[in-house]
Amino acid sequence: MAAFVMLLVVGLALARSAGMAITLGPETPVVVSATAPDERPWFGLGMEVWDARCYSCHADLTYIPELFLADGGRAYLPEMMLFGVRGEVVIEGVPMNLRHRAYASLDDEQLAAVLNLMLVAWGNDEALPPDVDFYTPEEVGAARTPERSNDEVLERRPNPWR
Prior knowledge:
With 162 residues, this protein is α+β, with helices and mostly antiparallel strands. It has a single domain (2-156), classed as Cytochrome Bc1 Complex, Chain D, domain 2. The chain has 7 helices and 4 strands; from the N terminus they run αββαααββααα. It has helices at 2-17, 43-54, 64-69, 73-83, 108-120, 137-143, 150-156, and strands at residues 20-24, 29-33, 85-91, 94-100. A two-stranded antiparallel ribbon has the order 1-2. Strands 3-4 form a two-stranded antiparallel ribbon. A hairpin with a 4-residue loop joins strand 1 and strand 2 (29-33). The longest helix has 16 residues, at 2-17.
């Protein structure tokens, strides 16, 4: 058993050093491409935040572009990350009880980077318009005020995502 664990640790380290992030989904590991094109300087920081804060709960977030492009979605996503949200929602047509913690302790650059990563990972970039404006640290900073409760964030979630 110890040899298996050691091989797993070494394999994960090699995958990470090769620019891959391993995320554990409900059934099998999912590999997220971590190629960081020069035009996306935030990608590396986004991967660091993803690895440290997100991947243990999320295997993938393939619905993010659709939510981002929905009326009010661009404003909703930073608020959800900053203040958290709890309540009944619909994700990819499935009603569920969403419980997302607040990450206001992350700085604006970290939050913008992980939001942008969610927009392009798992092939999500193919669902975005070619001229999409990615999040900036300034945009995330502006979303910090006014502070919102979980209920207020949920109420601002775009339809039909509520």
